[in-house]
Amino acid sequence: MPSSHVAEFDKVVKDYPTGIFGRHYLRALQGVSFTLEAGEVFGLLGPNRAGKTTLVKLLLSLCQPTVGNVTRLGKPASDRSTLSRIGYVHENHAFPRYLTATSLLEFYGALSLLPEPEVRARAGQLLEMVGLADRAHEPIARFSKGMVQRLGVAQAMINDPELLVLDEPSEGLDLAGRAMVHSLVAEQRKRGHTVLLVSHVLGEVEQICDRAAVIVGGKLVFLGKMTELRRDKSKGGTRPLEQALREIYDKPSAKPRSGHAVAAS
Asked: Is the pTM of this model over 0.85?
C-alpha cells in the first residue's frame, strides 16, 4: 500500500565499499527512520561526515540503500517517475557556463516535461523572483557566486515542486538573497508543499524549520520540533541551538563508522 507521507526513510542502512578490493565498508547510515509530512519545513542537521548527504542522495535516487526502504511521494525512491515533482538546490552548482539564465531554466523545464509556453512564462517569473530579470540573457559565465546561487533557486522551482530539497541554500547569498529564500520557503509551506533544508546556518534553521532530525555518526540521535531540540531538561527553560547541537555532537556516538557489508533485504 503506498505511503501517505511525502517521504519516508525506514530503517535505512547504507554501506560504501572502501579499500583496494572493496573488502571493507564505511557505514554512512545506521538504521535511520523518519518521515517528511506535507506542508512542513524539515531541517536535517549534523556535523560533517554525519550522513546527511547520503540521505539526500537516497531521496533523489542517486544511490540505493543497502538495507531498508526509502519512499518518495507515495512510491519507492527507485521509481524515477516522481523526480519531476521534486526541486533540488545543490550547494555547488555545475551549470553549463555558456548558457544564459533563461536558456538554463528552459532546459530544466524541458527535462521536467513541462509544456514550452508554461516553461517560458515560469522562467520569466522566477528570474524576477530571484532578482535576475535584468541578467536573463547573459551567459552564466559572467555571474558571481551569489548570482549562480540565485539561479539555482530558480532552477529548482521551474517545475513547481511538491518537495523542495535545499542543500545549503544561503551559500554565497547576501542578506537580500537569504530573505528571498526564506520568503520562498514560507510560500511553499503556505501552499502545503514540503521543504527539506540541509544547513549549517543555525539561525536560518531555527527561524524557518518546523521539525528537525539530527544525524551523528550515521545515527538518528534527535527527531522532533525545534522547541524540543532547544529544551534544557537539566535546568529547565531553553538553550541556544548551537549549545544544544554541540552537546549532541560531543557524545560518544559521534565517531567514524566502519564495518562489514550487510545483506540487502
From this structure: yes
